[in-house]
Amino acid sequence: MSCVLKFFKWFLLSLLLLILLLLLYVWLKPVTTYDAPYPDIRASSDPIVIARGKHLFYGASHCAGCHAPESEYPKIASGVDVLPSGGEDFHLPFGILYTPNITSDDETGIGTYTDGEIARAIRYGVKRNGQAMFDLMSFYDISDKDLTALVSFLRSLPAVKNKRPEHDWNLLGHVLRAFDVFEPMGDGEVPDAPEPAPTAEYGKYLANSVANCRGCHTRRNLMTGAFEGAEHAGGMKFSLGVNDQGQGIYMITPNLTPDPATGRITDWSLAAFIQRFRIGTTSAESFMPWGQFKRMNDEELTALYLYFQSLDPVTADEPIPVGVQIES
């Protein structure tokens, strides 16, 4: 009996020592930095280029929805051009991520950033200090032309002084960072973008490189951001808490492929598809940036519709067996 007790004693002591060593490693290890290249992007003062950047910023790229104060969301939904001084707080399993101020303020914004530093953050997901960003801004394949337009528009914005907090990582977050779970996502291999037109080809570019439809309409691992399901087949689950009966309430992103049984828009006409975007938000629980997507023009929406209808049908899995579901 004494031998068994000694074994468990030394086992527990060894386990405690390993945990302490792990914690020491996590807290002392410097965050990995990455030497991602700086895209050869130069801001333009051409009004046409800036106008294109503005159209993307407040429309298909929906940048304002995260980088503007949450109190300003109703204005964004109504078509007001709100300045992106920071505002969205993402409460994730590994901590709270705060979107930064990206106006031209030198102290609290990106006024002192070079064009290359801004472009690198968008193209590779690498911050100014070389650390990898969490995959919330998946615009790595946006064309050089549109990336130039976005950088040009940001340069045209007035400065707003609004200091945002640093990300608040919990213990899990520190562990994930110590073991380099968050890595640069962009590979720099940017496909040639088609010219804007009401075609499935342009719709593919918008859906996958600009509007980031697959970012929510594809099932993903919320710890790493990795894609785990079929593209655009839905099933991404966002927890909204519990109801009075203790059941989980979730927002489930719908299947956008033309599957006859589970596709949300399979039987929609083009007119119905465009009209749904023009209506905008109908549910406060929805994470869909309707207020910004409604600013896309008919050509862009037609392209998206044709692309989604051209996809191979995928029968969506039942993402949650019990509880209450709210679809976007």
Give a brief rundown of this model:
This protein is mostly helical and 328 residues long.
Characteristics:
globular; about 325 residues; three-stranded mixed β-sheet; mainly alpha; 6 strands; 2 domains
Q: How would you describe what is shown here?
A:
The structure is a single chain. Strands 1-2-3 form a three-stranded antiparallel β-sheet. It starts with a helix and ends with a strand. Mean pLDDT is 87; it is low at 319-324. The chain is globular, with a radius of gyration of 22 Å. It has helices at residues 2-28, 47-58, 64-67, 73-77, 115-124, 144-156, 171-178, 200-210, 213-217, 270-279, 290-293, 298-310; strands at 89-92, 95-98, 168-169, 237-242, 248-252, 324-327. It folds into two domains: 49-178, no CATH class; 200-327, no CATH class. Helix 1 packs across helix 7 (171-178), helix 2 (47-58) packs across helix 6 and helix 10 (270-279) packs across helix 12. It is mostly helical.
SSE topology:
Elements (H helix, E strand, L loop, with lengths): L1 H27 L18 H12 L5 H4 L5 H5 L11 E4 L2 E4 L16 H10 L19 H13 L11 E2 L1 H8 L21 H11 L2 H5 L19 E6 L5 E5 L17 H10 L10 H4 L4 H13 L13 E4 L1
Parallel strand pairs: 5-6
Antiparallel strand pairs: 1-2, 2-3, 4-5
Helix pairs in contact: 1-7, 2-6, 8-12, 10-12
- Could you say how many structural domains there are in total? 2
How many whole angstroms does the radius of gyration measure? 22 Å
Q: Please estimate the helix content.
A: 25-40%
Characterize the overall form: globular
Strand order within the widest beta sheet: 1-2-3
* Total helical elements: 12
- Terminal CA distance reads 60 Å
Order of helices and strands: HHHHEEHHEHHHEEHHHE
Main sheet makeup: 3 strands, antiparallel
The share of residues in extended strands comes to 5-15%
Q: Structural class, from helix and strand content? A: mainly alpha
